[in-house]
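Help needed: design a sequence for this.
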C-alpha cells in the first residue's frame, strides 16, 4: 500500500508539473498601468471633471516610515509619500509619480539587487504586490492574496527569482513568491505581533530572517515528504533583556548580527544569543537604537539613532565568545563617522555602481544624506541632499499676495516654500516645536510679509518675511528669502493650537489647549487685551464674516463646546489686576449626539415604506386569507457616546448659527447648530441638539478634519480623517449648504495616520495646498499645466521687499526658556508681589503702632504702680475683653448674608419680570405717535407711523439661471483623442522595419573624420539657411489674412456702433426690442419695491428723530422758562405792584407729546392703586366689578393731576434746572429799583426769545414735514405703479420661463453637438495622418525589399513572387482578451473572412502553416528577411484597410452631426424668436399701465406749435437738454456719412489695384516655375528636392561600414588560417584514435573467445557436481531464490522510477537514447551519492536531497 501511495504521489506531481508548464506566463507579458492605478471618485451623473485637481509637487517626506528610501540608479531615489510613490532625480530635483493602485495607500517598497525591478506593496482590503520593470516602469507582474489589510516589508533574493513579503495585522503572513509566474511558493504565519522586516540570506538562498517587536525569527525552506515547507525558529534572548529588533545582517557562516534598543549588538548562533557586543569599559556601541547594515572589506558597518556610523572588525566579531563571568564581548570600532549633530539614521541604501562606497541615508529628523564610507584621508564629508519637515505638519497657510506657503511642525522649524517654482526658500529653527501658523491678511500688513506662529510652550512669535537682496547691507548668504523675529510673547501655558485675525485686522486671537483664548491689539507692537476661559481645549477660531453686523469670534473646543464672544474693545476692559475678561458677554453651545436618533428615524422610514409596499402587494393579489404579521425587530436604541465625540472643525453659516464636524461616533454628518436664546450658567453643562444636519456620503468612520472655501465660496474643499481630499461645488451665497451634494474625492495622504488637518487655496484660487499628519505636503493645480502657464506671468513667487530701515533695527527679544511665565502668570505674580509689599508695609506700620502702644502701656503700668494702692487698677480691670461684642457682630453679618442669599432668586426673578413688562409695554417711536405743538400758534407736527418690516422679501434667484452647459463630452473627447494618439504611437513602434544586428563601434581615420566634418558643416549651414527662410515664409503666411477675414478695426467699429446706436423705436412701438440688460422680471421688480419701501422708511425715521429731538428741546425749554418765571416772581416781589410787567403764559406739555408717560409706573402709583382697591373691596360683587373700573379711572385722574402739578411746579426739577442761574434773596434786597427793573426786563426778554426760537424751529420742522409728505405721496404713487407692474410680470413669468428653458435646452444641445463635432473632426484628422503614415511605411517596406534584392539578383522573379504573395492569416489576439484565448495553444482556430474576389490570388493553406522553400543557391538569411518583410507588408495592408474603414465611419458621423447642427440652429432661432415675442408682449402690457408724472406749467414747452394742446396723450416728453443733444447728433451723423462715403471710395480703388497686382505676380510665378522645371530636367533629368540636395552630407555610417568591412576581411582571413591548423591537428588525432580503437577491438575479441572457453569448462564442472549437491542444498536454494526474486522486483521498481525521471527530465533539455542504440552492460551498484536535484514545481535548487527521496520531493506544500 505504501508503494502504491508513493507511485500515486509521483504521478500527481508529474500532472501538476505538466499543468504548470502549460499555464506558465510569457516573459513579455505586461499590464497597463493606466488601468491599474486608483482614480478620483466623482459622484455619478455629476458635471465635476475627473481632473479637477492635478498634482503639481510634493514638498514632504515621510521620514518616520521604515525603509522609506530606495535607490534605483545613481541619480534616482524612490520613497513613499502618502498614496504616491515619488521618483526623485537627485541632480535636477525633478519628481515623477506613481499612484497607489488600491487607493488605500502603500505599505512598503523594494528594489532588486540588479536595480531592474521595483516592487510596490499596497495597503487596503486584499492588497496587491505590483512588480514593475525599471527604467520603463511597466507593470510587469501582479501578486494577489498575500495578506488581508497591508504589507509591512518586501524583499527580493540575490538573483531576483524569489520575493518575500510580510503582512501586518491581523494575519502577519510571511509569503515566498515565485513572482514571475505570479504564484505562491511558500506561506506561513510569521508571528502574532508586529513584524518590521524580512530578508533572504545572500549566502544561502534557502534561509530567511524576520524581525520585529520583541523578537527575531530564523526561517528555512526545508524539504519534507510532501514538498517544501517553511520552518521557523524564534530567537531566545535568554539572560539578555528582550528588545525590538529594527535591523540585522546575515553573516557568511550562517550567524546573524542584530541591533538592540539600548545600543549594543547581539550575535545570534542558531536561535540563541552567542554573545552581546559592546565597547570597552561596558560602553554602548551606539547611543540609542543600533542597526547593522553592511559587510564590506572585512568591516561590519553599523549606524545608530545617535547619527554615527561605525565600522567593526568582522573576524573579531565572528570569533567572539563570552566569558563565564560576563556575557558581553568588548571591542572598539575600526572607523567611525559623524553624519550630523541632530541626525537620527533610520535606514541606508547603497549606490548602484559596482565598487562604489557611496550610501544614501534616511534621517528620521527629516533629511536624506549622501555618505561616503571609504574611510580615507580624502573622504568627503556627509552631504545633506534634501531637508524636509519631520513628523506631522501642525500648521500651514499661504500668502494672500503671492504664491508662497508657510509650514511648521514639531521638528521646531518654520519653512517658506514657493509652490509656483516648487522650491523651498528659507527655513528658521526655534527651541520648541511649532503647533499653529497663520499668514497675516492684507488688512494687517499690505506687503503680506507677516506670519504668526504658535509653539508647544505657549509662545507666539511674529515673523517678518523679506527678500534680503533689498537690504542696503550686503549679506554673504545667497538666499531668496529670510525670516526675522519681530515680536515674541507668551499668552499661554500649553501648546498654541490656533490663531486668527479679525477681518479688519485690528485684533489677533490665539487659542490653546489650556482652554483659554487670548486677544491682542494689532499694531507696530502687539499689546494684550485679555483672555477668556472656555470649557475645553481650543480647536478652531473663526471670526464672523463681513456680512454679519456684529463682529464676534466663534471658539470651537475639542470637547464639543462652542463659544461665541464679541470682539473685545481694549478701552472698556479693566486689566489692572488680571487679563481675564470676566465681564465679556458670551453664548455657549454644547453638542448633543443625534446620530442614533437619525439612524432610528431612517429605520422607521424604511420599515414604513416596506409595510406600504407589502400592503400594495396584498391588494394586488386580492388575498382573502389574512396573513399572520411578522414580529418586528426592536428599533435601534438611542445612544449617547461617553466620553463625547471630539469636535474637529466648524464655521459660521448665519448670525448665531454655525456648522460643525464631529469625530468618533458622531462622524458622517455636518451638524447645523445655533445658540439657545436663554443663556445661563448651565449652558456649558446642558447639551443641545442641532436643529439640522447634512449627511456626508461614505464618511461614517472618516470625519471631516479641515474645511476651506475658494474666494467666491463656490468650491468647498474638505480634508478628511483618512487623508483624502473632497471638493464640493456650491451655489453662490449658499451658507446653509443646500447645494452640497455631488463631490470629487482623491486619496492622497496615508490612509492610516495621514489625517488631513490643513488644506487651503492660494490667493488666486489656482492652487490647493494640503498637509497631513504623515509629514507630507502636496500642491495641486485647479487648472492644467498649459492653462496655468498661460494664466501666470511669472515662474517664481514674489518675496516681499524688506521694510525701510529694517537693517538698522535691533533684533526683538525672543523667549527661549520653555518654563518662562505667561502674560497672565506674570501679571498675577506682579499683583501678588504688589499685594505682598502692601501687606508688608501695613504689617510694619501696625508693628510700629503696637510698639508705641506697648511702650505707652508700660508707662501707664508704671504710673499705676506709683499710685497709692487703694486707687490702683487691678489687672482684670486693665484687661477689657471685647470678644463677645465681636462675636455678636459676626453673627449679625452671617444672618444678613444668609437672608440675602435666600432672597437672591426671588429678587432676580422679580427684577427680570419687571424688565420684561417694561420692554413689552414701552412703545417706541415707531408705534406711538408723538405730536409737538407750537407755543404761540396752533400749529402742530406729528411723527409718522412706521409699520413693522414686511416678512416677504426677495427670494433667491431662479435655479434655472444656475444650470450651465455640460462640459463632460469635451473631456471625454480629449481623452479619446489622447488614447488614439497613444495607440497610434504604440503601433508605430511595433511596425518599425527590421534592422540588422547592432554593429560594433569602428574607429575611422582622422582624414575621413575631417572630410565628414566639413561636409556636415556645409550641410548644417544650408539647413540653417533653409530653416530661416521657412520661418520667414511661415511668419508671412501667418500674417496673411483669410479670404473671408475682415479688418479687426472695422469689426471693432461695427461692434461699437451696434452697441451705441441703440434701438430708436419707442417702447410703444410694436417692433420694439427690449435690451437684455433692461428686461424686467418679477424678482427684479420685487427688489425695486423693497428698495423703495426701505427708502420711505429711512426718510420717515429721520423725520421722526428730528421731531422727537424737537419735543426734547421743548421739555428743556419748559424747564428753563419755569426757572426764569420763579426768578421773575422774586424780582417782582421786591418791586411795587404798579411796576410789575405781565409775564408770558408758560407752555404746557400735553399727553400727545409724551405718550410714553402713560405707561410709566412708580412705586407710589402701585401703592395708591392697592389702597384704592382695598377701599373698594368692601362692596358687593357687581359693585366690585364696576368699582374696579372706577378704581382705574380714579387712579388715572389722580395721575393726570399729579402730572399737571409737576408740570406747573416741580420744585426739585426747577431747583435743579435753575440752581446755577437763580438770584439769592440777599442779592435781591441789596439791589436798587433800577437794577430790579432792568433784571425784570431782561428775564422777560429771555423768555420771549426762547419762545420765539422754539416756534421758529417748529415752523421749519413743519415745512420739512410738508415737503416730505409731498415726496411720500409721489413715492406711494410710484409704489402703486410698481405693484401693478409686479402683478403683470407674475402673470407673464410662467410663459417667459417656459421659453427661457426651451432656449437653454437648445443652447445646451448646440454646445454638445459642437464639442462632439470637434471631437469627430480631430479624430478624422488623426486617422488621415495615420493613413498617410501607413502608406509611407508601405513604401519604405517596398524600398527595403528592393534594397535587399540588390542589382542582378538571379532569384529576383521568384523572390518578388514570394514577397507579393497573398496568404490566409489568422486574427491577432488583442491584449487583455479572455482567459480561454490566453490559455489556448491552437493558433489555427479563427481565420479572417475570405474575400470572394481574390480567391485565385491566395496560395497555400495558412500564413503560419504554409512553408516556402528557399531555392538552391539562394541565401537563407535573405529569404527569411523577405518573408519577414512580407509579413510586415500584410500587417500594413490590414491596418491600412482598417484605418480607411474607420475614417469612412468618422466622415459619416461628421456629416450626420453637421445635419443635426443645422436643425438645432433652426430650433435655437425659433426659441429666441419665441422669447423675444414674449418680452415684446410683456412690454406692450406694461405700456398699457398709467403712470402719474406731476409737472408744473412752467416745465411744459411745446416744440412744434408753441401752444399747449388740449390733449397731451400723443405727446413725447423730453427734456430740453435731450432735445438739444438730438439736434446736434443729426448734424454729426450727416458729417460722418460724408466721411464714410469718401473712405469707401478710396478702399474700392485700393481693392481694384491689389487685384491687378496679384494677377501680375501669379503670372511671374508661373513663368519662374517653368524655367526652374526646365533647368532641373536639363541638369538632373527629373525634378528633385533642392532642400534635400543642399542638406546632403557625407554619411559617417557608410564610412564606418567600409572601414568595418576591411577589418572584418582581415580578421576572417586570420580565423580561416587558425581553423585550417585545427582541422589538420584533429585529423591526425582521429587517425591515432582509430588505430588505438582497432587494437582494443582485437583485444576484446580474444577476451570474448577466452570467456567462451571458460564458460564451457565451468558448465561441464557444474553438471558433474550438481547432482551431488542438489539434495543437501535444496532448502538453501529456495531461500536464495526468494531473496533474488525480491531483489529483481525492487530493481524493476527502481528502473521504472528512473525511466519516469528520465522521461520527466527529457523535455527540459536532457537527451534521450533511441531504441537503436545498444545498452551498455550494467555497472555494479555504488553507494547512493548526495546530489543537487532540480525541484519539479518551483525550479529551485535545494541542497541535500538524496536520489532515493526523489519521489517524496515531487509535491509541494
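Sure. Designed sequence:
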Amino acid at each position: 500500500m505504501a508503494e502504491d501511495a508513493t507511485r500515486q504521489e509521483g504521478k500527481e506531481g508529474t500532472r501538476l508539473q505538466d499543468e504548470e508548464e502549460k499555464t506558465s506566463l510569457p516573459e513579455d507579458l505586461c499590464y497597463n498601468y493606466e488601468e491599474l492605478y486608483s482614480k478620483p471618485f466623482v459622484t455619478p451623473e455629476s458635471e465635476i471633471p475627473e481632473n479637477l485637481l492635478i498634482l503639481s509637487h510634493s514638498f514632504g517626506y515621510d521620514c518616520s516610515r521604515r525603509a522609506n528610501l530606495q535607490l534605483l540608479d545613481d541619480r534616482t531615489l524612490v520613497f513613499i509619500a502618502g498614496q504616491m510613490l515619488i521618483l526623485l532625480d537627485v541632480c535636477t530635483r525633478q519628481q515623477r509619480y506613481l499612484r497607489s493602485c488600491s487607493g488605500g495607500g502603500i505599505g512598503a517598497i523594494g528594489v532588486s539587487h540588479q536595480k531592474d525591478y521595483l516592487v510596490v506593496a499596497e495597503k487596503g482590503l486584499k492588497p496587491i504586490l505590483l512588480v514593475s520593470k525599471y527604467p520603463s516602469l511597466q507593470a510587469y507582474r501582479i501578486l494577489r492574496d498575500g495578506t488581508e489589510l497591508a504589507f509591512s516589508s518586501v524583499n527580493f533574493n540575490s538573483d531576483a527569482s524569489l520575493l518575500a513579503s510580510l503582512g501586518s495585522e491581523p494575519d502577519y503572513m510571511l509569503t515566498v513568491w515565485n513572482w514571475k509566474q505570479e504564484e505562491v511558493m511558500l506561506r506561513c504565519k510569521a508571528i502574532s505581533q508586529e513584524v518590521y522586516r524580512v530578508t533572504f540570506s545572500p549566502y544561502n538562498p534557502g534561509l530567511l530572517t524576520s524581525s520585529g517587536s520583541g523578537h527575531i525569527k530564523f526561517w528555512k525552506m526545508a524539504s519534507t515528504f510532501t514538498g517544501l515547507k517553511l520552518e521557523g525558529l524564534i530567537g531566545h534572548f535568554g539572560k539578555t533583556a528582550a528588545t525590538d529588533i529594527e535591523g540585522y545582517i546575515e553573516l557568511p557562516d550562517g550567524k546573524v548580527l542584530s541591533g538592540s534598543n539600548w545600543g549594543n549588538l547581539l550575535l545570534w548562533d542558531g536561535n540563541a544569543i552567542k554573545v552581546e557586543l559592546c565597547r570597552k569599559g561596558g560602553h554602548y556601541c551606539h547611543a540609542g537604537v543600533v542597526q547593522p547594515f553592511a559587510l564590506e572589506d572585512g568591516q561590519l558597518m553599523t549606524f545608530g539613532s545617535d547619527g554615527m556610523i561605525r565600522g567593526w572588525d568582522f573576524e573579531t566579531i565572528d570569533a567572539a565568545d563570552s566569558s563565564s563571568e560576563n556575557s558581553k564581548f568588548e571591542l572598539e570600532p575600526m572607523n567611525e563617522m559623524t553624519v550630523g549633530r541632530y541626525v537620527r539614521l533610520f535606514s541606508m541604501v547603497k549606490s548602484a555602481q559596482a565598487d562604489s562606497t557611496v550610501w544614501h541615508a534616511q534621517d528620521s529628523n527629516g533629511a536624506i544624506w549622501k555618505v561616503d564610507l571609504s574611510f580615507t584621508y580624502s573622504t568627503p564629508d556627509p552631504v545633506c541632499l534634501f531637508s524636509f519637515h519631520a513628523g506631522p505638519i501642525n500648521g500651514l497657510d499661504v500668502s494672500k499676495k503671492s504664491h508662497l506657503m508657510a509650514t511648521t511642525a514639531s521638528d521646531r522649524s518654520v519653512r517658506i516654500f514657493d509652490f509656483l517654482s516648487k522650491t523651498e526658500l528659507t527655513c528658521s529653527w526655534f527651541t520648541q516645536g511649532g503647533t499653529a501658523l497663520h499668514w497675516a491678511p492684507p488688512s494687517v500688513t499690505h506687503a503680506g510679509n507677516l506670519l504668526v506662529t504658535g509653539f508647544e510652550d505657549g509662545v507666539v512669535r511674529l515673523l517678518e518675511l523679506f527678500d534680503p537682496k533689498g537690504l542696503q547691507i550686503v549679506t554673504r548668504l545667497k538666499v531668496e528669502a529670510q525670516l526675522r523675529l519681530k515680536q515674541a510673547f507668551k499668552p499661554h501655558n500649553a501648546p498654541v493650537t490656533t490663531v486668527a485675525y479679525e477681518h479688519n485686522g485690528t485684533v489677533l486671537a490665539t487659542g490653546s489647549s489650556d482652554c483659554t483664548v487670548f486677544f491682542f491689539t494689532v499694531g507696530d507692537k502687539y499689546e494684550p487685551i485679555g483672555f477668556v476661559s472656555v470649557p475645553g481645549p481650543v480647536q478652531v477660531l473663526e471670526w464672523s464674516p463681513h456680512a454679519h453686523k456684529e463682529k464676534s469670534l466663534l471658539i470651537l473646543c475639542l470637547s464639543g463646546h462652542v463659544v461665541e464672544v464679541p470682539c473685545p474693545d481694549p478701552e472698556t476692559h479693566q486689566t489692572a489686576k488680571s487679563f481675564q475678561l470676566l465681564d465679556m458677554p458670551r453664548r455657549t453651545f454644547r453638542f448633543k449626539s443625534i446620530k442614533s436618533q437619525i439612524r432610528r428615524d431612517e429605520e422607521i422610514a424604511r420599515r414604513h415604506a416596506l409595510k406600504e409596499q407589502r400592503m400594495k402587494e396584498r391588494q394586488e393579489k386580492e388575498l382573502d386569507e389574512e396573513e399572520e404579521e411578522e414580529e418586528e425587530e426592536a428599533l435601534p436604541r438611542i445612544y449617547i457616546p461617553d466620553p463625547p465625540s471630539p469636535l474637529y472643525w466648524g464655521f459660521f453659516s448665519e448670525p448665531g448659527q454655525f456648522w460643525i464636524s464631529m469625530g468618533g461616533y458622531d462622524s458622517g454628518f455636518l451638524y447645523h447648530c445655533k445658540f439657545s436664546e436663554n443663556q445661563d450658567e448651565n449652558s456649558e453643562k446642558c447639551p443641545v441638539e442641532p436643529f439640522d444636519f447634512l449627511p456626508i456620503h461614505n464618511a461614517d468612520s472618516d470625519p471631516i478634519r479641515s474645511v476651506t472655501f475658494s474666494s467666491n465660496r463656490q468650491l468647498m474643499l474638505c480634508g478628511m480623517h483618512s487623508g483624502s481630499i473632497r471638493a464640493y461645488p456650491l451655489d453662490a451665497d449658499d451658507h446653509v449648504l443646500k447645494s452640497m451634494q455631488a463631490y470629487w474625492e482623491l486619496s492622497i495622504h496615508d490612509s492610516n495616520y495621514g489625517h488631513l488637518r490643513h488644506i487651503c487655496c492660494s490667493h488666486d484660487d489656482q492652487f490647493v495646498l494640503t498637509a497631513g499628519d504623515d509629514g507630507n505636503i502636496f500642491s495641486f493645480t485647479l487648472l492644467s499645466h498649459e492653462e496655468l502657464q498661460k494664466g501666470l506671468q511669472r515662474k517664481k513667487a514674489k518675496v516681499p521687499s524688506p521694510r525701510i530701515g529694517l537693517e538698522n533695527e535691533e533684533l526683538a527679544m525672543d523667549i527661549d526658556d520653555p518654563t518662562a511665565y505667561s502674560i497672565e502668570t506674570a501679571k498675577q505674580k506682579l499683583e501678588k508681589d504688589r499685594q505682598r509689599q502692601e501687606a508688608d508695609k501695613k504689617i510694619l506700620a501696625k508693628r510700629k503702632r503696637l510698639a508705641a502702644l506697648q511702650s505707652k502701656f508700660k508707662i501707664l503700668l508704671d504710673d499705676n504702680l506709683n499710685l497709692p494702692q487703694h486707687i490702683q487698677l487691678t489687672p482684670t480691670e486693665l484687661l477689657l475683653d471685647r470678644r463677645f461684642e465681636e462675636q455678636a457682630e459676626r453673627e449679625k453679618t452671617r444672618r444678613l448674608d444668609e437672608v440675602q442669599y435666600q432672597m437672591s432668586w426671588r429678587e432676580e426673578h422679580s427684577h427680570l419680570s419687571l424688565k420684561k413688562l417694561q420692554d413689552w409695554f414701552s412703545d417706541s417711536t415707531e408705534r406711538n405717535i408723538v405730536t409737538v405743538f407750537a407755543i404761540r400758534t396752533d400749529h402742530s407736527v406729528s411723527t409718522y407711523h412706521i409699520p413693522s418690516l414686511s416678512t416677504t422679501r426677495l427670494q433667491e434667484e431662479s435655479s434655472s439661471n444656475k444650470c450651465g452647459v455640460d462640459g463632460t463630452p469635451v473631456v471625454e473627447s480629449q481623452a479619446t483623442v489622447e488614447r488614439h494618439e497613444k495607440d497610434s504611437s504604440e503601433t508605430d513602434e511595433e511596425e518599425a522595419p527590421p534592422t540588422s544586428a547592432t554593429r560594433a563601434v569602428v574607429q575611422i581615420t582622422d582624414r575621413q573624420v575631417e572630410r565628414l566634418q566639413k561636409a556636415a558643416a556645409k550641410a548644417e549651414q544650408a539647413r540653417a539657411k533653409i530653416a530661416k527662410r521657412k520661418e520667414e515664409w511661415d511668419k508671412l503666411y501667418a500674417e496673411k489674412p483669410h479670404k473671408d477675414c475682415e479688418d479687426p478695426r472695422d469689426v471693432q467699429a461695427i461692434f461699437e456702433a451696434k452697441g451705441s446706436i441703440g434701438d430708436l423705436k419707442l417702447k410703444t412701438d410694436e417692433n420694439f426690442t427690449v435690451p437684455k440688460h433692461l428686461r424686467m422680471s418679477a424678482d427684479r421688480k420685487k427688489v425695486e419695491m423693497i428698495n423703495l419701501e426701505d427708502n420711505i422708511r429711512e426718510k420717515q425715521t429721520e423725520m421722526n428723530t428730528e421731531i422727537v429731538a424737537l419735543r426734547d428741546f421743548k421739555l428743556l425749554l419748559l424747564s428753563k422758562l419755569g426757572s426764569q418765571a420763579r426768578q421773575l416772581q422774586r424780582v417782582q416781589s421786591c418791586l411795587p405792584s404798579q411796576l410789575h410787567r405781565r409775564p408770558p403764559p408758560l407752555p404746557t406739555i400735553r399727553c400727545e407729546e409724551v405718550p410714553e408717560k402713560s405707561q410709566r409706573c412708580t412705586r407710589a402709583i402701585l401703592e395708591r392703586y392697592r389702597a384704592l382697591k382695598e377701599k373698594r373691596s368692601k362692596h358687593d360683587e357687581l359693585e366690585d366689578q364696576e368699582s374696579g373700573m372706577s378704581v382705574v379711572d380714579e387712579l388715572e385722574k389722580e395721575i393726570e393731576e399729579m402730572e399737571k402739578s409737576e408740570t406747573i411746579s416741580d420744585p426739585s426739577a426747577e431747583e435743579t434746572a435753575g440752581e446755577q442761574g437763580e438770584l439769592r434773596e440777599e442779592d435781591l434786597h441789596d439791589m436798587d429799583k433800577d437794577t430790579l427793573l432792568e433784571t425784570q426786563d431782561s428775564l422777560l426778554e429771555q423768555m420771549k426769545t426762547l419762545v420765539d426760537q422754539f416756534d421758529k424751529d417748529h415752523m421749519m420742522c413743519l415745512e420739512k414735514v410738508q415737503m416730505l409728505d409731498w415726496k411720500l405721496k409721489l413715492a406711494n404713487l410710484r409704489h402703486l405703479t410698481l405693484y401693478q407692474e409686479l402683478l403683470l410680470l407674475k402673470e407673464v413669468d410662467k410663459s417667459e420661463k417656459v421659453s427661457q428653458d426651451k432656449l437653454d435646452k437648445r443652447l445646451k444641445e448646440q454646445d454638445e453637438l459642437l464639442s462632439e463635432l470637434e471631437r469627430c473632426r480631430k479624430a478624422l484628422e488623426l486617422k488621415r495622418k495615420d493613413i498617410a503614415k501607413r502608406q509611407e511605411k508601405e513604401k519604405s517596406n517596398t524600398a527595403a525589399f528592393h534594397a535587399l534584392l540588390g542589382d542582378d539578383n538571379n532569384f529576383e522573379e521568384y523572390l518578388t513572387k514570394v514577397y507579393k504573395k497573398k496568404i490566409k492569416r489568422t486574427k491577432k489576439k488583442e491584449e487583455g482578451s479572455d482567459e480561454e484565448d490566453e490559455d489556448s495553444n491552437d493558433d489555427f482556430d479563427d481565420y479572417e473572412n475570405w474575400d470572394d474576389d481574390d480567391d485565385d490570388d491566395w496560395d497555400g493553406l495558412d500564413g503560419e502553416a504554409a512553408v516556402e522553400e528557399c531555392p538552391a543557391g539562394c541565401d537563407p538569411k535573405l529569404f527569411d528577411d523577405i518573408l519577414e518583410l512580407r509579413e510586415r507588408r500584410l500587417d500594413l495592408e490590414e491596418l491600412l484597410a482598417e484605418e480607411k474603414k474607420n475614417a469612412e465611419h468618422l466622415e459619416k458621423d461628421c456629416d450626420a452631426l453637421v445635419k443635426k447642427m443645422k436643425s438645432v440652429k433652426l430650433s435655437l432661432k425659433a426659441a429666441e424668436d419665441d422669447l423675444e415675442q414674449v418680452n415684446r408682449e410683456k412690454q406692450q402690457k406694461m405700456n398699457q399701465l398709467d403712470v402719474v408724472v406731476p409737472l408744473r406749467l412752467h416745465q411744459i414747452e411745446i416744440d412744434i406749435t408753441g401752444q399747449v394742446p388740449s390733449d397731451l396723450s400723443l405727446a413725447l416728453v423730453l427734456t430740453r437738454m435731450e432735445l438739444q443733444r438730438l439736434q446736434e447728433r443729426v448734424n454729426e451723423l450727416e458729417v460722418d456719412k460724408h466721411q464714410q462715403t469718401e473712405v469707401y471710395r478710396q478702399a474700392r480703388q485700393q481693392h481694384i489695384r491689389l487685384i491687378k497686382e496679384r494677377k501680375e505676380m501669379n503670372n511671374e510665378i508661373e513663368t519662374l516655375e517653368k524655367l526652374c522645371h526646365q533647368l532641373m530636367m536639363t541638369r538632373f533629368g527629373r525634378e528633385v528636392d533642392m532642400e534635400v540636395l543642399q542638406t546632403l552630407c557625407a554619411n559617417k555610417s557608410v564610412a564606418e561600414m567600409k572601414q568595418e568591412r576591411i577589418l572584418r576581411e582581415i580578421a576572417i582571413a586570420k580565423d580561416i588560417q587558425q581553423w585550417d591548423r585545427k582541422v589538420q591537428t584533429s585529423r591526425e588525432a582521429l587517425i591515432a584514435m582509430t588505430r588505438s580503437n582497432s587494437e582494443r577491438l582485437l583485444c576484446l575479441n580474444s577476451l570474448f573467445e577466452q570467456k567462451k572457453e571458460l564458460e564451457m569448462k565451468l558448465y561441464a564442472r557444474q553438471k558433474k557436481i550438481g547432482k551431488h549437491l542438489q539434495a543437501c542444498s535444496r532448502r538453501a536454494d529456495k531461500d536464495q531464490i526468494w531473496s533474488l526474486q525480491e531483489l529483481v522486483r525492487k530493481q524493476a521498481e527502481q528502473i521504472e522510477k528512473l525511466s519516469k525521471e528520465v522521461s520527466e527530465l527529457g523535455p527540459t533539455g536532457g537527451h534521450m537514447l533511441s531504441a537503436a542504440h545498444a545498452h551498455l552492460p550494467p555497472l555494479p551498484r555504488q553507494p547512493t551519492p548526495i546530489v543537487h536535484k532540480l525541484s519539479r514545481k518551483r525550479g529551485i535548487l535545494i541542497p541535500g536531497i538524496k536520489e532515493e527521496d526523489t519521489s517524496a520531493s515531487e509535491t509541494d506544500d
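Residues 1233-1349 form the longest helix (117 residues).
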